[in-house]
């Protein structure tokens, strides 16, 4: 930058300060912004000319003003947004020139004029891939300097690649988010003059919507002028970028204008109401006109229609956009499609149940996923599922849609890099049931692989979808059968899962799948066990978890911690009698308590103790007594008699002589912890059973239950190990554990 140019810019900075000071004497809106914009234009062009003066050839670039700068609406502390478009990015001198221009812009605006400047570098070939936010700034672009033909070429490229439906959806979502964050009505005591309801952005967005459907933008109204005027004054008074008109600043502005503060705020509310109405009318126009939602999909008078030549994937995106805009989807079956743009199709699937229902309504879902459509009336072969396979799958997606953002599962969802694999797996996880119920996970994974490859999805999504379907029952099995507090459980599950993203997707799919089986299928206990398994496995994958505990070291640790409780010989004998899984997963405080229980049991005094677990809506009942054949059956009979649901059993037996049973039952009563009155009755009955005063079968008959009715068993498998695991598939019911 030459010294002459630097001097001119410093004078421009002084002019800017005088211009700002003039606001105090002559408050104004758009006319002031235009003068301010002219000053910024002068600085930009001066820097460009200065840069051109050191080059022997005309610089093959165009410099463009975008956003509010492009609209000539620079308030005192608005940002300066500039885009540079090159003719040939391979030019050897271009990189040096662009770097110098960016440096000069930063000094001129950031240092001299004290304004924030943002700059972008765009190629014309970038136009098709630009996101809605970038396109929004370019919709208001204005040529500042350089090759004008490049400006026209960029404008043409933007128009040719413009997807109206996606853009409109993005703008409406953006408005909803901003109004939810600031103020969702213009009738508010402390308005946000730009982003809130009734702010300048309502008018901007109304014009963007109009232009998207081929209509002309509206000219700024008197109400718009008023809001701009108050925004200019607010910037001047605060001395920085601020658009929230707080009560303290309201008094400052009213004093400056010589107005009553309440009259001033009423005027702002009236102007804001008018701008908000502009936005609402622009949204209503979407249902009164015709525009393109996506390639091959039109919105005609508020109804989405798929054209005959549409690609199925692109058409699905159009239906997704129509759904998000609240448009009606025609139930006229679409003409058969011949191609499927897979990435577009999986994007549409991941927008949720409402889109899927609309895809089903117009016949696109059956074309995209005929394998799922074949499951529409396929009835489940168990007594647990309440819906057909098709409807169950759709409801799995419904639960994924409903995740609260501030919940444990919502946080998992927000941490995922992409949800497309999760949603496609949710839709297809049970399609294998068309062929074989018992191996439907593996069959479904194979079907999903074929679909992903036919759609041309990338290898990462394809692998994740197939893996999720193949293993979609595993996490539920682990929390049902395994001790989630045992370190070995998390390490084993971590080996199965492999990475954090798959762990998160599997946790969400597990939760949604079980919830969608039938009302009440998911319990607080399952949620607690799922959270525990997820957290421990996450730590194991990240390398933060401890390895499988060394049993000898664990015994030595317990010996040290229990020292002083009893004689050293008694402690030694008790610790050595414990099974491995008990030692590695039981806190020392409970071990200390259990040691006392075992000592009493050896002396012929059984213990029945209750511990409420509000976190899972259940209670742990510990029974410690001399072991004997049939003991577990007797205890389960008492629980069944009093209508207690058995959610888990941790059964341990010491190797002492005589052997002592230390069994912990996780029980619930109608989905809640066991009431004290019920527990007292159950404890008394268990003590009677243990001393032989009564048999559990008699208690069952007293309670109107048949102890001899056989239990239907679908399948049971014993998994050897420490602990051994017994997996049973049978009809649901409180009596199943006892009868088995």
Topology of helices and strands:
Elements: H1 3-25, H2 30-52, E1 61-65, H3 67-70, E2 80-86, H4 94-112, E3 117-121, H5 132-139, E4 142-146, H6 148-160, H7 164-181, H8 200-212, H9 222-238, H10 247-257, H11 261-285, E5 290-294, E6 297-300, E7 303-306, H12 312-324, E8 328-329, H13 342-349, H14 353-361, H15 364-368, H16 370-373, H17 389-401, H18 408-415, H19 420-428, H20 440-455, H21 459-470, H22 474-481, H23 487-497, H24 500-515, H25 524-541, H26 551-562, H27 568-577, H28 580-585, H29 588-602, E9 607-613, E10 618-626, H30 631-641, E11 645-653, E12 660-668, H31 676-690, H32 696-702, E13 715-719, E14 725-729, H33 736-739
Parallel strand pairs: 2-3, 7-8
Antiparallel strand pairs: 1-2, 1-4, 5-6, 6-7, 9-10, 10-12, 11-12, 13-14
Structure description:
This protein is 55% helix and 11% strand. The chain contains 33 helices and 14 strands. Strand 11 (645-653) and strand 12 (660-668) form a beta hairpin. The longest helix has 25 residues, at 261-285. The mean pLDDT is 89.
**What's the arrangement of strands in the largest beta sheet?**
3-2-1-4
Low-confidence segments: none
Helix/strand/pairing category: alpha+beta
Number of helices: 33
Per the principal axes of the C-alpha atoms, what is the gross shape? Answer: elongated
| Average pLDDT reading | 89
Alpha carbon gap, first and last residue = 89 Å
- Specify the helix fraction band: 40-55%
* Total DSSP E strands: 14
Radius of gyration over alpha carbons?
35 Å
Characterize the largest beta sheet: strand count, sense, and whether it forms a barrel: 4 strands, mixed
In terms of DSSP E residues, the strand content is 5-15%
């Amino acid at each position: 930058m030459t010294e002459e140019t630097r001097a001119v810019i410093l004078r421009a900075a002084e002019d800017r300060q005088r211009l700002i000071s003039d606001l105090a004497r002559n408050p104004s809106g758009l006319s002031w912004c235009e003068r301010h914009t002219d000053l910024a234009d002068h600085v930009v062009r001066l820097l460009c000319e200065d840069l051109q003066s050191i080059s022997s050839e005309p610089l093959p670039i165009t410099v463009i003003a975008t956003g509010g700068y492009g609209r000539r609406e620079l308030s005192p502390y608005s940002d300066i947004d500039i885009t540079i478009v090159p003719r040939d990015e391979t030019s050897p001198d271009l990189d040096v020139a662009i770097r110098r221009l960016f440096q000069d812009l930063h000094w001129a605006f950031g240092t001299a004029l004290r304004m924030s400047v943002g700059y972008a570098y765009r190629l014309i070939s970038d136009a098709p891939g630009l996101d809605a936010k970038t396109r929004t700034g370019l919709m208001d672009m204005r040529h500042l300097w350089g090759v004008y033909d490049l400006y026209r070429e960029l404008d043409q490229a933007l128009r040719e690649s413009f997807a109206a439906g996606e853009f409109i959806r993005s703008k409406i979502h953006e408005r909803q988010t901003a109004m939810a964050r600031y103020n969702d009505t213009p009738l508010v005591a402390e308005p946000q003059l730009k982003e809130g309801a009734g702010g300048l952005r309502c008018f901007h967005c109304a014009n963007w919507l109009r232009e998207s459907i081929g209509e002309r933008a509206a000219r700024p109204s008197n109400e718009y002028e008023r809001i701009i005027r108050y925004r200019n004054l607010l910037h001047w008074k605060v001395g920085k970028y601020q658009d929230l008109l707080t009560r303290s600043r309201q008094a400052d502005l009213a004093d400056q204008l010589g107005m009553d503060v309440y009259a001033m705020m009423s005027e702002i509310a009236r102007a804001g109401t008018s701008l908000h109405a502009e936005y609402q009318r622009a949204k209503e126009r979407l249902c009164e006109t015709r525009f393109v939602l996506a390639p091959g999909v039109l919105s005609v008078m508020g109804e989405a229609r798929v054209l005959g030549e549409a690609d199925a994937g692109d058409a699905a995106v159009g239906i997704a956009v129509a759904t998000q805009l609240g448009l009606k989807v025609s139930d006229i079956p679409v003409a058969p499609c011949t191609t499927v743009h897979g990435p577009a199709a999986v994007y549409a699937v991941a927008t949720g149940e409402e889109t899927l229902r609309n895809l089903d309504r117009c016949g696109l879902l059956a074309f995209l996923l005929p394998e799922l459509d074949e499951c529409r009336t396929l009835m489940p072969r168990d007594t647990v599922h309440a819906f057909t396979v098709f409807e169950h799958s759709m409801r799995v997606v419904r639960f994924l849609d409903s995740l609260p953002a501030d919940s444990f599962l919502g946080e998992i969802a927000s941490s995922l890099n992409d949800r497309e694999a999760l949603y496609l797996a949710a839709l297809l996880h049970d399609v294998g049931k068309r062929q074989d119920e018992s191996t439907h996970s593996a069959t479904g994974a194979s079907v999903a692989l074929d679909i992903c490859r036919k759609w041309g999805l990338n290898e990462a999504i394809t692998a994740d979808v197939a893996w999720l379907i193949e293993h979609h029952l595993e996490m539920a099995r682990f929390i049902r059968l395994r001790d989630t507090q045992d370190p070995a459980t998390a390490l084993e599950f971590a080996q199965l899962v492999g990475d954090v993203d798959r762990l998160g997707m599997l946790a969400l799919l597990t939760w949604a799948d079980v919830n969608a089986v039938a009302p009440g299928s998911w319990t607080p206990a399952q949620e607690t066990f799922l959270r525990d398994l997820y957290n421990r496995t996450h730590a194991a994958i990240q390398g933060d978890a401890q390895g499988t505990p060394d049993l000898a070291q664990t015994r030595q640790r317990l010996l040290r911690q229990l020292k002083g409780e009893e004689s050293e010989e008694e402690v030694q004998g008790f610790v050595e009698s414990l099974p491995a899984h008990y030692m590695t997963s039981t806190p020392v405080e409970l071990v200390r308590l259990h040691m006392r229980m075992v000592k009493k049991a050896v002396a012929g005094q059984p213990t029945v103790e209750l511990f409420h677990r509000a976190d899972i809506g259940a209670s742990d009942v510990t029974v410690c007594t001399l072991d004997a054949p049939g003991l577990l059956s007797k205890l389960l009979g008492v629980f069944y008699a009093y209508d207690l649901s058995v959610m888990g059993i941790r059964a341990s037996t010491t190797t002492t002589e005589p052997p002592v049973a230390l069994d912990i039952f996780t029980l619930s009563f109608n989905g809640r912890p066991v009431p004290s009155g019920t527990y007292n009755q159950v404890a008394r009955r268990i003590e009677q059973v243990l001393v032989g005063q009564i048999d559990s079968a008699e208690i069952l008959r007293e309670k109107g239950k048949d102890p001899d009715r056989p239990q239907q068993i679908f399948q049971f498998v014993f998994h050897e190990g420490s602990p051994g695991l017994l997996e049973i598939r049978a009809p649901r019911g409180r009596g199943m554990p006892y009868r088995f």
